[in-house]
Q: What sequence folds into this?
């Protein structure tokens, strides 16, 4: 059984999934899911890396929180040119 502090409660669906492109991704997730990790694991100005870029939710949150960001995805359909 999970302890209450080990559980993230995040609203999904109904336009809460972050990027408008989320419907094209294989595993979209809301910004509220990644934000606590970026806040706890990095400081402003540090680099966040997402090797499975997808729709860029992690990139958007990292930029909003003042972190530098690099990401890539092997699927061309997931990478905006």
A:
């Amino acid at each position: 059984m999970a302890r209450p502090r080990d559980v993230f409660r995040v609203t999904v669906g109904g336009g809460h999934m972050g990027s408008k492109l989320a419907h094209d991704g294989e595993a979209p997730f809301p910004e509220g899911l990644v934000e606590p990790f970026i806040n706890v694991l990095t400081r402003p100005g540090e680099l966040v890396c997402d090797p499975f870029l997808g729709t860029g939710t992690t990139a958007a949150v990292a930029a909003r929180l003042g972190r530098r960001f690099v990401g890539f995805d092997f699927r061309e359909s997931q990478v905006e040119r």
About this structure: Helices lie at 31-41, 57-64. The first strand starts at residue 47 and ends at 50. Residues 31-41 form the longest helix (11 residues). Residues 4-78 form one domain.
